Amino acid sequence: MSAPSFRLRALERDDLPFVHQLFNDDQIMSYWFDEPFEALVELRDIYDRHIHDERERRFIVDVDGEPAGLVELVGIVDVHRTAEFQIIIAPRHQGRGLAATATRKALDYAFAVLNLHKIYLIVDVANEKAIHVYRKVGFQDEGILREEFFAAGRYRNALRMGVLQHEHLERMEREKRIPGSP
């Protein structure tokens, strides 16, 4: 059996029903510090307003031609060359290593194509699986944001993590020279 084909591709308007499903999953959105969208039309309106926004890049995680997740680089600041990273892997695709692969690909794009200096993220301190993936691909802890967001009836702490361009590019070079390295 051949390995599944994997790619990050640009988010298209036709992908919005898939994204809408993700955004209407209470479990997923609790980790995104946001309430679910109420209507697909709202998501379409947001898409239409942001399609040409140079401060954002949105990708679909595509596995064998099927959408498996969403990756975003948002809040891109040209002066500082920074962006925030966000990811959702659809529940039925979790546990297959897609988050790590998609995160690496997004970092490759952010640093080698957009020439960004730093990518950061904010993650719920209770989301241990995500934190493990982020550390595995090179993100470092930057600090705890106390009572940063409200979810499930209480305020929760978040962890800010970041990775710098030179750290990621050096890691890419090491991985190319040592086949099979993590």
From TrEMBL:
The record, for CDD domains, names: NAT_SF
Membrane-crossing ranges are none
Question: Boundaries of each N-acetyltransferase domain copy?
Answer: 6-162
Q: What Gene3D superfamilies would the database entry show?
A: 3.40.630.30
Q: Name one Pfam family in it.
A: Acetyltransf_3
Task: Cite the entry's keywords alphabetically.
Answer: Acyltransferase, Transferase
GO terms assigned for molecular function: diamine N-acetyltransferase activity
EC number(s) per entry: 2.3.1.57
Record PANTHER family: SPERMIDINE N(1)-ACETYLTRANSFERASE (PTHR43415:SF6)
Q: What is this protein called?
A: Spermidine N1-acetyltransferase
According to its UniProt entry, this protein's organism is Saccharothrix xinjiangensis
